[in-house]
Amino acid sequence: MTETETIAYDVVVLGAGPVGENVADRTRAAGLSTAVVESELVGGECSYWACMPSKALLRPVIARADARRVPGLRQSVQGPLDATAVLAHRDYYTSNWKDDGQIAWLDSIGADFYRGHGRLAGPRRVTVAGPGGEQHVLTARHAVAVCTGSRAVVPELPGITEIKPWTSREATSAQAVPGSLVVVGGGVVGVEMATAWQALGARVTVLVRGKGLLPRMEPFAGELVAEALTEAGADVRTGTSVESVTRNGSAVVVMTDKGDRIEADEILFATGRAPRTDDVGLDTVGLEPGSWLTVDDSCRVTGSKWLYGVGDVNRRALLTHQGKYQARIAGAAIAARAAGVPLLESNSWGAHAATADHVAVPQVVFTDPEAAAVGLSLAEAEQAGHRVRAVDIDLASVAGAGLYADGYRGRARMVVDLDTETLRGVTFVGPGVGELLHSATIAVAGEVPVDRLWHAVPAYPTVSEVWLRLLEAYRDA
Length: 477
What we know:
Distance between the termini: 72 Å
Pfam families: Pyr_redox_2, Pyr_redox_dim
Strand content: 15-25%
EC number: 1.-.-.-
Largest sheet: 7 strands, mixed
Number of strands: 21
Cofactor: FAD
Family: Belongs to the class-I pyridine nucleotide-disulfide oxidoreductase family.
CATH superfamily of the largest domain: FAD/NAD(P)-binding domain
Number of helices: 16
GO molecular function: oxidoreductase activity
Helix content: 25-40%
């Protein structure tokens, strides 16, 4: 094979994160020849700079917090975390930022892997510039799937370039605990990293432009997380914007819109994401470089018969599990179209219908307490025009919660559609509630009637008994 010859495949996948890997897995399972192109590490953001390292950092934090709430155990876990051991545990889960194992997995499914920067070069055509200067030209008989994910956005502020701020990548891969850290942003990345680094020994200040933390969830979620962060020693300031940042020796100096001056060793900007589509050749097929891709429910780009945008690039839900879900949908759709098989309608529940992207997107925020939600919040449901009622329960009233932890603090809400008697959304906040979320996801995605939920009996005494309390509160209101 020469360095410049054109190689034909059924499918070419740009990006080898979890989304690209799953597209390749599904198309290979359908018997389609598939090439995967990646310029960084196979496994993508999730494996090396997001889901896996962040949760490896947070797990010891949450386990210690839970242990401190258990009589007979709390006195044994009063000391500080072993930061060296926690960081080593994180490094293990990132495979020390090596992707040999994931490359071996691609090989095991029969996908061809190309290391290098892939760009569209017109319809169904991809060029790959390898790290050693080698060039490849790949063509796709049936589909090119853009699965290049998203990147952190750093705001344009005076002094921002010179200070070399942290983004989510630096926050999850840092090799030492900073003495002090300013976190700008109150979304998932901001609150999770504030939780982790505060517990590991940093003095954390959180600056949030809006009214509270976790603005996409029910208001009580952000309130409970802010309360816990403050109790842990973090300084949480809402309604505060950053005006400028500079370096004073090794320290970062932050000036806020309120005239406050804050010094810290590091500053993390957790202020949003942008699609990694600025240099993938979108202009060669009539699309705007750097844009989010508009897609249908099979993740095929609007107006195209062969181009797919899967995962973060389509902006439907910037979550690994949703991206993998979309990848299964897209892979099945590509295979069906290649075989000439009609796809199901978008409101169906077969392999080709991405219905859950619209009605049942679950997310867990791994703070202390955890926050977990699926579907619509009360405000979102009302804005969408649904006639709904929110039902709230103090999780401390559930017997299983009291056994789980002394002084358990948490809250649960279900949003009931009064016309269909099904759930539009569910939110839990409290220790360990992430493990409750899949039951809520099934209820929302499956459109299970409230009358039917009465017969899904929760085991006693578990925290899951909150479902019975929610249903009783709805019935008795």
